[in-house]
Amino acid sequence: MSRVVFLLIPQVHLLDVAGPAQVFSTANDLGWPYTPAYVAEAGEVATVQGLPLQAEITWPPLTPDDLIIVPGWRGPTRPAGKQTLRRLREHHESGGTVASVCAGADALGRAGLLDGRRCTTHHTVQDELARLYPQAKVVKDALYVEDDRVVTSAGVASGIDVALHLVTTRHGPYTAGQVARALLVHTHRDGTAEQISPMVRWRSHVDETVHRIQDLIETRFTERLPLSLLAEATGCSERTVTRLFTRATGLTPLAYQTALRLERAEHLLGRGATAEVAAREVGFEDTRMLRRLRARTVPPADR
């Protein structure tokens, strides 16, 4: 059981709250337990859209598996109090993830969580964020950016994208795909070039046979999956599987599986796993293959 704590600031945008909340609620319905909590510095929080929200003024106990999300608000900066900012810092320092939607990045900046990290926000306030926090590395015109468990997004509908990204990193692309389909989100959207997910990039087609193949690969990407198994699962010949998959995605099934393995390995390495552990967890026989793949795709500064 994980908590998703929404820190509500006065004049918060409803969609910035409701979009991510719906993603985690749907994940809960699918068997991944999440408990929402809404906290603020006052018991009632005004929204831009006129519907007031009720919140707790006492924070629940948190573990590193829990998430804090700061939705965006309209108007002049409304700084959170020192105690609230301390909560954000302490959660991150303990190993937890802190995310923001739109102007919520300002609260992360005031907590010192943007210094030296890549981040983003809504395009109308990107320059202001860079001015306020000169030590931050503001990525312009990105939907979302993750850097060392600090996740920022552009706002509005991109709050759904960043929540789906968090579900992907925690539970894998198949689960995120189930959530997206339940929400009638036709296509995942890319975050930034540095954070592109294979499922995001190669799920925009409409070939249902290829979607079924991708579902199978995503649920069993750590296993050896011969072409004959994919053909049997879809009722196609091996040649047809390769032809359809390559036409829809630009990749062979094996290349797609390798991309999933590499993405998961990068996540494990970012959480402190050794190369040996990461390679074993994603299905590589040893670390040499992982190192060769990372040498081709990961900038030297990030290896």
UniProtKB/TrEMBL annotation:
The keyword Transcription applies. It comes from the Bacteria. It comes from Nonomuraea roseola. Keywords: Transcription, Transcription regulation. InterPro entries: Class_I_gatase-like, DJ-1/PfpI, Homeodomain-like_sf, HTH_AraC, INH-QAR. Residues 211-303 form the HTH araC/xylS-type domain. This is GlxA family transcriptional regulator.
